[in-house]
Amino acid sequence: MARKIIIDTDPGQDDAVALLLAMASPELEVLGITCVAGNVPLALTARNARIVCELAGRDDIPVFAGCDAPLQRRLVTAEHVHGRSGLDGITLPDPVMPLQDRHGVDFLIDTLRSEPAGTVTLVPIGPLTNIATAFRRAPDVVGRVKQVVMMGGAYFEVGNVTPSAEFNIFVDPEAAQVVFASGVDLVVLPLDLTHRALTSRAWVERMRVTGPVGRAVASWTDFFERYDQQKYGNAGAPLHDPCTIAWLLRPDLFDGRRINVEIETEGRFTTGMTVADWWGVTDRPANALFLRHVETEQLFDLIARRIASLDKAAAG
Ligand code: RIB
Ligand code: CA
């Protein structure tokens, strides 16, 4: 039986690769995609998610627009990383598939209430605004969630949008605080891990020749990596968000520990920081499986093989 998931996303090139990996994996059943404002505004994330579904030949997956702004703060976006469209690197046709009428938060609540308790996994790979809004509006659904597997936060890597905060948490720290305090079974893939998930030139060229899907992934990576190369000086683009899907498929490739993680929401310099008690120096209860290591060679081989399968299927 395939594992039921809902991906909550702000595409973004790395989100797009995560969506493709999920759609290429029969172990997963994508019940729906809920979009949130993050890398780019909501209208674009909702557009981009549908572009990716159509690229993968999966216009059967319902796409919903969720929250267009954080719970209480002004939206901060990342066009400087992802380009004005959010999917810069290649021009793809506007989507034909419709956006669902229902709000993404309503879809989250309705699905968690209608599916058997403990069977739906939420995979947030953008700011946590939709998830937190659903938990606040319908507290009964929190206990019905199987697991939340998210990309966000950092420990040794500290921050990528400020010296102390990772983007997904920084955009909506109040939402992150709701999720981390909810008691849900939480798996966190932070920058400490995803900054090691760097594409190589050989991998990108391997993708480029598989067909239209692989070509798009290679083009997105070409665009996406320039920011990290200039900033960190290392070659390759960090495939942050696909690590969540890869963990669902091959948790054995990852390693970490259950620890306490609190979210700073008031710090003058540290708002959005994930205060990760990796060394257990407080008596605060563990609330997250915080992953720090991934076998990168096997990770990229998995992503390449699965995405190539989309091109193979399309070629018939
Ligand atoms: O900090 C990395 C995260 O922020 C990723 O989810 C990326 O897509 C951006 O949303
Ligand atoms: Ca993202």
Structural features, described:
By secondary structure, the chain is α/β, with parallel strands linked by helices. It has a single domain (3-315), classed as Alpha-Beta Complex (Inosine-uridine Nucleoside N-ribohydrolase, Chain A). The protein has helices at residues 13-23, 42-55, 79-82, 104-114, 129-137, 167-171, 173-180, 191-194, 201-208, 212-232, 242-249, 296-315, and strands at residues 3-9, 28-35, 63-65, 120-124, 145-151, 186-189, 254-259, 261-263, 274-276, 288-294. The protein has an eight-stranded mixed β-sheet, with helices on both faces. A two-stranded antiparallel sheet has the order 8-9. Strand 2, helix 2 (42-55) and strand 3 form a beta-alpha-beta unit. It starts with a strand and ends with a helix. The site of alpha-D-ribofuranose has 15 residues, from helix 1 and helix 6.
